[in-house]
Each structure stands twice: as C-alpha cells, then as structure tokens.
Amino acid sequence: MQVDYIIVGLGLAGLAFTKELEDNNKSFIVYEDNSQNSSMVAGGMYNPVILKRFTPVWNAVEQLKVALPFYKTLETKLNNKYDYSVAIYRIFKSVEEQNNWFIASDKPLLSSYMVSNIIHKKFEGISANYGFGKLKNTGRIDTKLLLKDYRNYLRKKDILITPNFKYDELKIYNNSVEYHQIKASKIVFCEGFGLKENPYFNYLPMQEAKGELLTIHAPKLSIDFALKAAVFVLPLGNDYYKVGATFNWKDKTKQPSEEGKQELLDKLNSFITVPYEIIEHTAGIRPTVKDRRPLVGTHPKHQNLAILNGLGTRGVMIAPIAAKSLYNYLEKNIEIDKEISIDRFEQLF
Ligand SMILES: Cc1cc2nc3c(=O)[nH]c(=O)nc-3n(C[C@H](O)[C@H](O)[C@H](O)COP(=O)(O)OP(=O)(O)OC[C@H]3O[C@@H](n4cnc5c(N)ncnc54)[C@H](O)[C@@H]3O)c2cc1C
Fold this sequence. Notes:
single chain, 349 residues, alpha+beta, eight-stranded mixed beta sheet, binds flavin-adenine dinucleotide
C-alpha cells in the first residue's frame, strides 16, 4: 500500500493534521493505540485571556481566526455539534482585582473579550463577594465527541489502524518511509506525552503536566456560563458540570488519584455552596513544553519524519494553526515560525 502520509496519534494534533491532508486531497493512514487521553478528557475551553493576570494569551487572536472555522467545518462534515459558545465569569477575590480587570479590559487586544463593567448579580450557590468579570466570545469544544466521531469516520474509510505503533519497525529511506508494508512519503508523529517513547524526537524538552477533572451533577447550580475561581466549572447541560483542572508536574500516570480529587473538591467547595454529586473523575497528561510553545517541524537528520506536538494547556486553539503551518512547510516549503519550530532545540539533538 502506498500513501502520502502515515500519522501516529489521533488526539487534537493528529486530527488537525489529517483534516489538513483531507482538505488537500492527500492520502494517509493513522495509527492510534489509546495510550494517551489528554484530548479525550480536556475541558475543551477556548479563551484568549489569561485569567490569573488578565493578559492576552500568546497569539490567541491569530489562533482563533483559524480554529473557529476549523471546528465549524468539522461540524458540517461530521454532522454533529462540537462548538458551544460559553461566556466565562471570573470571580474576583479583592477590590484590587476589580481594578486590574477594569484597566485590562480597555487594552486593544482584550477589549473585544473582556466586558469592562463588574457584574454584581447574585447567583444561587455561588459565593462571590467582590462580583464577577465577564468574558465574551469564548466557548467550549466537545473534544471527546469530536474525536469519537472523527475516529469513526476514518474507521469507515478504513484508514484508522488501532494497534500501537512500534518505532523500531519503521524503515527510513531518503525520500520515503515504510511501516508494515505501508509506504509513505512522510510520517508525522502526533503522540502527545507518548513522545517520550519516540526515539527520533524524545530529545525535545517536554515538561508534561498531569491534569485531573471531575464531572458533577448540581441541580441547584443553574448557570449557563463557565465559572472561574480556584478551578473552572464548565456547564455541560442538564445540570452537569466539569470541574478542573489540577496541575501535577511529578505524577506521570494517567490514572485519576485520590489526591487530585481532594484538591478539586477543596477548591470547588471554596466558592460553591449548593450540594452536588460526583459523576466521573478523569485524568490526562498535557504535552507541555519547557518554553510553553508547540513543537512543529522535521527531524534534524530525516526530512521525511515530522512532528506536531507540544500543544500544552491550549490544544483547542493551537492545533489547527500549528497543523496548517506544518503542512505548509512540508508541502509548500513555507518556513515555520521560529517560535514554534523545533529548530530552536537543535542544540539538544
Ligand atoms: C485535565 C485537562 C484539561 C484540559 N483542558 C483544556 C482546555 O480546556 N482547553 C484546551 O485547549 N486544552 C485543554 N487541555 C490540553 C489539551 O487536552 C491538549 O493540549 C491536547 O489534547 C493535546 O493533544 P495531542 O493530540 O497533542 O495529544 P493527545 O491528546 O495526548 O493525543 C496523542 C494521541 O497519540 C496516541 N499515541 C501515542 N503514542 C502512540 C503510539 N506509539 N502508537 C499509536 N498511538 C499513539 C495517544 O493514544 C493519543 O490519542 C487539557 C488537558 C488536560 C489533561
């Protein structure tokens, strides 16, 4: 069998790159072994404002310009809904935070997202003595449903293979690669934290961060916006909410932990005062990089081996633009932005 591309890993990175290939009529085959689940458990929020300091997220406006039409097209293609417009209410802890919000909301990059006046409305079950700052034009992608649908779609076309990809069985030639009788011009690795097992790219400095989330049922918490305080509370509909997430830089397992659950509950109970029931507890490992930028490019020695990784805490916004950039480099020789190119780590190779 001969294809243009082999793809390893179908989380948000793999999905964004294969969508790019489909849009350009390239043939491909995907390997996915369910060894990682960051994209499956993600909160899925897109929000161009850092809610700790009220500063813009790196390149957020450019990212959203590509990401929003990307998810829209997938909704049409797969005939399902993934993109939910959700406002975010940030609970203030002090008068100083209210003032900082007010100043930030006037800045050019932030004014189309931050509503400048402070919201003092009371909501049942939410403790917010200093009121809320509201973010608009934000939302949530149902990444789990999107990936499930996309995987089914590829399965029906017979181009999703589920076994584990074995790196030592890959044959590399000058202008092609071969894996189990499948010949391809190029291979693109999109394994998230699975990168650590990849002998070609594991020199790159990933500083992965485990994250845990709870799903709760809280019938008395009747909100249709996302709430941000010590943790996020995201409305899923029918009184279900996702609560998260933790950041653990030491634990590399993807299993939910008692410690993570307790941390989430302590934080949640600091601002939610209505009863709730825990429905689900999940965890995943974010593929975060030392300098908090994606990993895009080709291997220093083998031009036919490429990588799309390092989406960190914001895969929803970054994956589509990073995939486009990798495609444009591989197919049109358009240079990759230095900030995301893996060339910045060549001295580590
Ligand atoms: C708790 C939590 C909450 C988050 N919330 C948000 C959020 O609200 N908004 C946001 O934008 N981002 C969020 N993120 C981050 C986001 O999930 C990541 O940026 C993104 O999912 C990374 O996608 P990826 O495709 O690079 O990696 P992954 O999702 O890990 O996908 C990699 C895929 O490769 C497969 N794979 C690996 N090795 C192999 C192999 N050898 N053979 C075959 N297949 C292989 C894995 O099974 C996996 O499916 C969150 C992450 C976590 C953990």
